[in-house]
Write a structure and sequence with these properties.
The chain folds into 2 domains: 5-154, Resolvase, N-terminal catalytic domain (Rossmann fold); 180-303, Alpha-Beta Complex (Hect, E3 ligase catalytic domain fold). 50% of the residues lie in helices and 13% in strands. The protein has helices at 5-9, 41-55, 76-86, 98-101, 105-118, 134-167, 192-208, 211-220, 233-240, 266-276, 278-281, 291-316; strands at 12-13, 22-29, 57-65, 92-95, 121-124, 180-182, 188-190, 248-251, 254-257. The strands form 3 sheets. The chain has a 5-stranded mixed sheet, sandwiched between helices. β6 and β7 (188-190) form a beta hairpin. The longest helix has 34 residues, at 134-167.
Length: 317
């Protein structure tokens, strides 16, 4: 078995010279692209095929979902497998472990009822799971419950770890807010160059009263965003509403005043909020779009139309 993308994008049809008493489909899933040995897609498929040979089942299909969460229902190959099961293309679905099939008990139990209606049994290669009997169905629900319990424990441990970081005023991910750098100990420090642009954004917004105009000027000056995308109204709004710039730290339900994170004085920040929410407090109409923005939009539309015409001429030739 190989783990190339071809097998991930489409179900693999497997020919067998030995006819078993039932036809089987194998479903394998990993939650990350670099899952370790013993849990990889190839290892899962190998273990499932070995179990099918032991039981005399002919493996007719293999469905693979790589780097997809078990809590997601719309997994590409999972959906194809469901359609094949409903169409009666196999008699039993084999997976390495129930949590490869589903991490949600409600989802798993609902699916088990559907498979039963379709006349398709479920079988785990590593657990005592066989839904063809009442005892097997009881075990199925217990194992599904354990899988969801484990998922909830992981969520709780993650939340606890996040809370522990927040209590030390550390930043919880690798990308700090614009205006800051993340130190080796996890805390933030002010990036002087980006901090200068943060202040510029607030002051310019107070002058022009337009987030779109501020974004346009930032892009004209090739100011780095910290990401691969350009400045937009949303990215400017994110900066204008970030209370971290006045030292108000808020992560994982931890809210605290951290003076060393302050970039702006309260007066500048408050003025920007008043301008940003001015239309909520009054019945006044929004100002008309500025002329240079109109010109930019018109130029973009004309360019798209010209490209459309050129495509039509090329097709005619």
């Amino acid at each position: 078995m190989t783990g190339d993308s071809e097998h991930i994008l489409a179900p693999q049809r497997i020919a067998s010279d030995e006819l078993g008493e039932a036809s089987a489909a194998v479903y394998a899933r990993t939650s990350s692209a670099n899952q370790r040995f013993g849990h990889s897609i190839d290892e899962q498929v190998r273990a499932c095929c070995d179990r099918c040979r032991l039981l005399g089942w002919e493996v007719t299909h293999v469905f693979r979902d790589e780097a997809v969460s078990g809590t997601e229902i719309d997994r590409p190959m999972f959906q194809q497998m469901l359609h094949a099961a409903e169409a009666g293309h196999f008699d039993v679905l084999v997976f390495w472990k129930l949590d490869r099939f589903s991490r949600s008990i409600m989802h798993a139990v609902k699916l088990e009822r559907s498979f039963r209606t379709w006349g398709v049994a479920l079988h785990s290669a590593t657990e005592h799971l066989d839904t063809t009997t009442a005892t097997g169905q009881f075990n199925f629900r217990n194992i599904a419950n354990a899988a969801e319990f484990e998922r909830e424990l992981i969520k709780q441990r993650t939340a606890m770890g996040m809370k522990a970081l927040a209590l030390e005023h550390k930043w919880p991910n690798s990308r700090p807010p614009f205006g800051y750098a993340k130190r080796a100990d996890g805390r933030l420090e002010i990036d002087l160059e980006e901090a200068r642009w943060v202040r510029w954004i607030f002051e310019t917004y107070l002058e022009y009263k337009s987030m779109a105009d501020v974004a346009h000027m930032l892009n004209d000056q090739d100011v780095p965003t910290g990401t691969s995308t350009a400045w937009t109204t949303n990215t400017v709004r994110t900066i204008l509403t970030n209370e971290l710039y006045v030292g108000q730290y808020s992560v994982a339900d931890v809210e605290d005043d951290v003076p060393e994170y302050r970039l702006l004085d309260d007066e500048l920040f408050t003025k920007a909020q008043r301008v940003r929410t001015r239309f909520r407090r009054t019945s006044g109409e929004r100002p008309k779009m500025r002329q240079h923005r109109k010109e930019t939009l018109v130029e973009g539309i004309l360019q798209q139309y010209e490209e459309y015409l050129e495509t039509g001429r090329s097709a005619a030739d």
